[in-house]
Design goal:
Order of helices and strands: EHEEHEHHEHEEHEEHEEHEHHHH
Bound molecules: nicotinamide-adenine-dinucleotide, 2'deoxy-thymidine-5'-diphospho-alpha-D-glucose
CATH architecture of one domain: 3-Layer(aba) Sandwich
Number of strands: 12
Shape: globular
Structural class: alpha/beta
Strand content: 15-25%
Length: about 350
């Protein structure tokens, strides 16, 4: 039985990757290593927690001795590394956590993988999940390609860029078999409501202001989270080692246009008059260093591995809104306690 370590599996994307792997690969043993920060939630994995091929391990990737012992005990065959501090606004107010988890944590994993596997790298793989934000910001036109030069602007994207460089350095220096993918903005069930779409769904539900940064003209390329998990699966199993793949939905939206679509869908679902939720839109001070536009060219992944997104955005956004409205207890749980403090610090005085 192959042993696979998935880090950050209690988070948004990680939980979808865990679900896919546990159900699709009964002959793999899936170990989910997660620190359970504010963003990690075992509620996300209720449907797989009792499967015989799944184990949850609570732990911090920043603790190098612990990581080394874990690799010695489990002798993993592969790693899919998703654990990270992931929210740009938090990286602006508290960069150190991002440096520790995203950079030091990644190096701890790389070091242990190298030490355990060094006598025989055959059949082993370290898969690093990264972001399109490492490429910086586009103007009105153009796309990010796999060979676009890195140009990160936030502490979050700089920490992810740094981790990508270290992953490549371990490949080039020690021969560690690695793959990196850089994905665009994900949306879907189980995303923590600090990110645009679940935050606005929750605020619309409570008739609270919708804080649009700047003029709402920034553009993001949105991909349904299950399609990201499918891409990770395709790349993990069929991508040549040492390579990078861009993942994206060719689904660009100006923030303000996406927010208006969300308002319309929510008005319909909540039985409110069309246009009611749009009145909640409130323009607030822009995010510092706010990248204007992200757009991914994912033709390499489509051409070489035959991956295409399975959902159109209209269908994906309906599914997403339905999930949050049908899982209000999940939303209420994650927005209790510390969330209020974060929310007040972020939006309270604007
Ligand atoms: P998330 O914040 O929802 O989840 C991160 C998970 O990592 C949480 O479960 C958290 O508890 C865990 N974690 C954090 N610090 C840890 C530590 N020190 N040790 C162990 N576990 C720790 O993030 P997400 O949105 O699911 O993103 C997952 C990965 O995908 C990240 O690497 C992120 O950079 C990348 N990514 C995200 C997106 C997106 O749109 N969300 C897009 C592209 C790439
Ligand atoms: O591109 C991939 C990245 O997408 C991932 O690497 C990150 O982990 C993920 O958080 C996401 O980053 P963004 O900064 O693009 O996502 P966020 O949901 O925070 O914001 C999306 C856009 O909406 C961005 O232009 C900022 C804007 N925004 C966001 C919030 C939270 C607002 O206008 N108001 C808000 O309150």
């Amino acid at each position: 039985m192959k042993k696979l370590l998935i880090t950050g599996g209690a988070g948004f994307i990680g939980s979808h990757v865990i679900r896919l792997y546990v159900n699709k690969y009964p002959d793999y043993h899936i170990c989910n290593l997660d620190k359970l920060t504010y963003a990690g939630n075992l509620e996300n994995l209720k449907d797989v927690e009792n499967k015989p091929n799944y184990t949850f391990i609570k732990g911090d990737i920043v603790d190098g001795d612990f990581i080394q012992r874990l690799f010695e005990e489990y002798q993993f065959d592969g790693v899919i590394h998703l654990a990270a501090e992931s929210h740009v606004d938090r990286s602006i107010s508290n960069p150190m956590e991002f440096i520790m988890t995203n950079i030091v944590g990644t190096v701890n994993l790389l070091n242990s993988a190298k030490d355990i596997w060094k006598d025989n790298f055959k059949g082993k793989l370290f898969y690093h999940v990264s972001t399109d934000e490492v490429y910086g910001s586009l103007g009105e036109t153009g796309f990010f390609y796999e060979d676009t030069a890195y140009d990160p602007h936030s502490p979050y994207s700089a920490s992810k860029a740094s981790s990508d460089h270290l992953v490549r350095a371990f490949h080039d220096t020690y021969g560690l078999p690695i793959i990196i993918s850089n994905c665009s903005n994900n949306y879907g069930p189980n995303q923590f409501p600090e990110k645009l779409i679940p935050l606005f769904i929750n605020n619309i539900r409570h008739k609270k202001p919708l804080p649009v940064y700047g003029k709402g003209e920034n553009v993001r390329d949105w991909l349904y989270v299950v399609d990201h998990a499918r891409a990770i699966d395709a790349i993990y199993h069929n991508g040549p080692t040492g390579e990078t793949f861009n993942i994206g939905g060719h689904n660009e939206w100006k923030n303000i246009d996406l927010i208006k679509v969300l308002c319309r869908v929510m008005d319909k679902k909540l039985g409110r008059t069309d246009g009611e939720s749009e009145k909640l839109i409130t323009y607030v001070t822009d995010r510092a260093g706010h990248d204007l536009r992200y757009a991914i060219d994912s033709s390499k992944l489509q051409r070489e591995l035959g991956w295409v997104p399975s959902l159109q955005f209209e269908e994906g956004i309906e599914k997403t809104v339905d999930w949050y409205l049908n899982n209000q207890k999940w939303l209420d749980n994650v927005t209790s306690g510390n969330y209020q403090k974060y929310y007040n610090e972020m939006y309270g005085n604007r």
